[in-house]
């Protein structure tokens, strides 16, 4: 009788110590992330655009009451932008120029984000067909992604260590090629922040003080889109000299008419806040502001605007993303 009881106990123990399942991992992740009062994640993000690789230093912070701050610094030119969410709204800041876009947006919850725990969890929870794999060092989720303005991005692999700390995210195309890579170097799940850490004014002042202001006085060379919609061509180009720089206006006509404006960026004396009815969008070289008929961004001292009345948002972004020739600062 004692032997039978012992065998039964061993069997129950074996059942109780079963394999760690996708449901177990998802439940534990939800408890871990939703229980956080604040966190800070730092690491490196790579965006692969054809043969070019753009690398960013990423510093992402969260505090309860839905406050987010993400610093993205382009390692090639040290151009820093900050995506900020607080009780006043969502902003994309360019501190060195004292400029900011303000959005009426659901960011960061309206699409996938490789550097925020809440959106990674949301992608896991929203995919009923997700895959889960355990290795000797990691738990790996493979999920669908939500990038409505980039159809090339179809799924992602999210890597966690055995304590469910994120280590890496890879966003893949249909050929299983990684087009975005996020590698986490430091994860602090008990981070605390000062009251003004997520304020607009403090971020503009602090980041501007820490960064060097680089401006361009002239647009050197021809900066054209490498992608132009079918049956559309350049009809006119005008260069206008400004008091502190230059503006180039290109008009394209045909089946998909649009206008491309390039202007040397200047530092505003007072904080300039531009309201945008659209969304922040991560391009290869910068964070852009996207609305129904315009994409605008700043890169290498040049402000860009692609404007069209009858083009889809995806076509606008195709044109914007193809402007990859970098001017030389003067």
In brief:
With 330 residues, the protein is α+β, with helices and mostly antiparallel strands. The chain has helices at residues 2-16, 22-34, 117-126, 200-210, 313-321, and strands at 38-49, 52-63, 67-74, 80-86, 89-94, 99-103, 131-134, 138-144, 155-161, 166-172, 178-188, 232-242, 245-254, 258-264, 272-276, 278-282, 287-291, 294-299, 302-307. Helices cover 18% and strands 43% of the residues.
Structural features, described:
This protein is of the alpha+beta class and about 325 residues long. The protein folds into 2 domains: about 20-210, Clam (outer membrane lipoprotein receptor (LolB), chain A), CATH 2.50.20.10; about 230-265 and about 290-320, no CATH class. It has 5 helices and 19 strands. It has helices at about 1-15, 20-35, 115-125, 200-210, 315-320; strands at about 40-50, 50-65, 65-75, 80-85, 90-95, 100-105, 130-135, 140-145, 155-160, 165-170, 180-190, 230-240, 245-255, 260-265, 270-275, 280, 285-290, 295-300, 300-305. The protein is globular, with a radius of gyration of 23 Å. The chain starts with a helix and ends in a 9-residue tail after the last helix.
